[in-house]
Write a structure and sequence with these properties.
Blueprint: E1 2-3, E2 8-11, H1 15-26, E3 31-34, H2 43-46, H3 67-72, H4 82-95, E4 102-103, E5 108-114, E6 119-124, E7 129-132, E8 134-137, E9 159-162, E10 177-181, H5 185-197, E11 200-205, E12 211-213, H6 221-229, H7 231-240, H8 259-272, H9 289-306, H10 310-316, E13 328-330, H11 333-336, E14 342-346, E15 352-356, E16 359-362, E17 365-368, E18 371-374, H12 383-386, E19 389-391, H13 398-401, E20 420-422, H14 435-455, E21 461-463, H15 465-480, H16 510-522, E22 528-530
Parallel strand pairs: 1-7, 2-3, 2-8, 3-4, 5-19, 8-20, 9-18, 10-11, 10-18, 11-14, 12-13
Antiparallel strand pairs: 5-6, 6-7, 15-16, 16-17, 21-22
Helix pairs in contact: 1-14, 9-10, 14-16
This protein binds NADP nicotinamide-adenine-dinucleotide phosphate.
NADP nicotinamide-adenine-dinucleotide phosphate is lined by residues 53-55, 142, 150, 163, 181-187, 189, 204, 206-207, 326, 347, 352, 375-378, 431, 490, 495.
Length: 543
């Protein structure tokens, strides 16, 4: 089938795609959303593992585009669990009648730009062809699960699961011996739940991680009313902040205060809980090794005080700088290792040798299990884009042009790919921020840009190569001034063999980033080429 009728094709119906289609409709653009899942929700549709929940407070991890929606939706917990977030997104799809523009079970396999027609042709796995002038990739930053590449997996006679592709039907773990591979955010959230359900749980840990206590709780009626009344003010704080959250920024460095004051601040953060438990205490945790070391020592002391067996506690103590691998947020994670049915296997010096028909072999020892849960993460930020055959002007592929690392202007557009927009693309604050705040900002920017093109009778917009180069250099320089590039992390692509190691997240924060995006617009879409000639000389809108 061939479909030609819409202005914009949107790929993905998660937080980004739903906001996108709603905003496009408000601006009187027609849109078609193509979604691979059998339901809406994106990340929250796929990641159904036990314990999956948000690590940004529910009051901030939600849309702001409708006051009615803010008033109507009653979050039950400070950090909502996956089923509640999914229900919220399903409610949004129904409440705003978005489903009529969404085609489920539809995987985009290619997207090719026709320069002459200024139009994208998008092909699905069924061979259907959709054509539209504009294409928006709302494909998410953590949406392509990494296939476990451990030798022998094919021979395993038990069941294996990936946290990022968890089955819809409940998985019965009672009386089963379960192994978990991976101790990132997903593993750390799942492990306490798996331990409660399984007869025996073996955690295979390659790198221990820092995890902050969630201090989750039910939201009382009074709290909920206050959060609705103060929503606009709170959201404005998020939008101007670094991380997209309303926490007031710390104003001093860790070395500005006495050791007692430092300890006191960390303790207060720890009692408050959440991802910024320690990073919110001082303004230099991501830039000063000394500051980071103080926070590390505090976190390691907490692990040692919580885990009874000192050998296990030591194995759980991370040594990288806090935050350089994504900080986790947990409920009862470290305490889980005090349970008699939980065993930690440290892979630091002895990696998994292979998977056998009946279990996992490590250091010559066969660990017999019935189920293996892989919490091994994602091909992050660029994975979901690179897996689609995206071709811009002259048939150039996006994956090829990003072979040495992704290149964009503001994380919104890539040179050579006119009329293609990325929501929270590489080079924007994306995964270092509250995703919903960053998504809404991008969605609004893109819709305003399309309205600008329509008003001026234009047919195309594209990042200029020169502006893109300058932006990526700026992104790299900012990152290099921090500790972020020092760890092996998915931020850098180090978790995927062969992926170039490039830190492609804008670290200066949501507020400064938003200001820059607004400035670019008020400067007449500085750095973007409108109705360009379609070759490398374009740069007309550059300074
Ligand atoms: P992840 O952070 O990439 O963690 C993957 C884990 O698997 C790491 O511990 C990694 O060890 C380990 N691993 C990978 N391959 C392995 C192998 N062959 N053998 C042994 N261990 C292996 O993935 P994730 O936990 O799914 O989290 C990804 C991101 O998703 C998070 O950082 C977060 O941004 C997001 N997330 C958010 C939430 C939330 O908001 N609530 C929940 C879950 C995930 P190494 O570190 O040694 O590579």
């Amino acid at each position: 089938m061939q479909y030609d009728e819409v202005d914009v094709i949107v790929v993905g119906a998660g937080f980004s795609g739903l906001a996108m289609v709603h905003r496009l409709r408000e601006a009187e653009f027609s849109a078609r959303v193509l979604e691979r899942g059998s339901g809406v929700g994106g990340t929250w549709f796929w990641n159904r593992y036990p314990g999956a929940r948000g690590d940004i407070e529910s009051a901030d991890y939600c849309y702001s585009f409708s006051d009615d929606l803010v008033r109507e939706w009653r979050w039950s917990e400070r950090y909502a669990a996956q089923p509640e977030i999914l229900r919220y997104l399903e409610h949004v799809a129904d409440r705003f009648d978005l489903r009529r523009d969404i085609e489920l079970n539809t995987e985009v396999v290619s997207a090719h730009y026709d320069d002459g027609e200024a139009r994208w042709t998008v092909t699905t796995q069924r061979g259907d062809v959709h054509r539209a002038p504009y294409l928006v990739m709302a494909t998410g930053n953590l949406s392509l699960p990494k296939t476990p590449d451990i030798e022998g997996l094919d021979s395993f006679e038990g069941e294996w699961l990936h946290t990022g592709l968890w089955p819809h039907d409940p998985v019965d773990l009672s009386g089963r011996r379960v192994a978990v591979v991976g101790t990132g955010s997903s593993g750390i959230q799942a492990i306490p739940h798996l331990a409660e359900e399984a007869e025996h749980l073996v955690v295979l840990q390659r790198t221990p991680n820092y995890s902050m206590p969630a201090v989750n709780r039910l939201v009382s009626d009074d709290e909920w009313r206050a959060s609705v009344e103060g929503f606009a003010e709170r959201r404005a704080l998020c939008e101007g902040s670094d991380a997209g959250t309303p926490l007031p920024p710390a104003t001093d460095r860790a070395t500005d205060v006495s050791p007692d004051e430092r300890q006191d601040r960390y303790e207060r953060g720890w009692s408050r809980g959440g991802i910024s438990s320690l990073s919110g205490a001082f303004n230099d945790m991501f830039s000063s090794e000394e500051s980071n070391l103080y926070a590390q020592e505090f976190a390691r002391a907490k692990i040692r005080s919580e885990v009874h067996d000192p050998v296990v506690a030591e194995a759980l103590c991370p040594s990288h700088h806090i935050g350089t691998k994504r900080t986790c947020v947990d409920t009862r994670y470290f305490d889980t290792y005090n349970r008699p049915n939980v065993e930690l296997v440290n892979l630091r010096s002895h990696p998994i040798e292979r998977i056998t028909p009946s279990g996992i072999r490590v250091e010559g020892r066969e660990i017999a299990v019935d189920i293996i849960v892989f919490a091994v993460g994602f091909d992050a930020i660029t994975g979901a884009l690179a897996e689609i055959d995206i071709r811009g002007r002259g048939g150039v592929s996006l994956a090829d042009s990003w072979a040495d690392g992704p290149r964009t202007l503001l994380g919104l557009q890539a040179a050579g790919f006119p009329n293609l927009f990325l929501v929270t693309g590489p080079g924007s604050p994306s995964v270092l921020s509250n995703m919903v705040v960053s998504i809404e900002q991008h969605v609004d920017w893109i819709v305003a840009c399309l309205a600008h093109l329509r008003a001026g009778g234009h047919r195309s917009i594209e990042a200029s190569r020169d502006a893109q180069n300058k932006w990526m250099q700026h992104v790299t320089e900012l990152a290099d001034a921090t500790l972020y590039p020092q760890a092996s992390s998915w931020y850098l692509g180090s978790n995927v063999p062969g992926k170039p190691r490039v830190f492609n997240v804008y670290v200066a924060g949501c507020g400064p980033y938003r200001d820059e995006c607004d400035l670019v617009v008020s400067d007449g879409y500085r750095g973007f080429v409108i109705d360009g000639l379609g070759h490398d000389e374009i740069g007309a809108n550059d300074e």
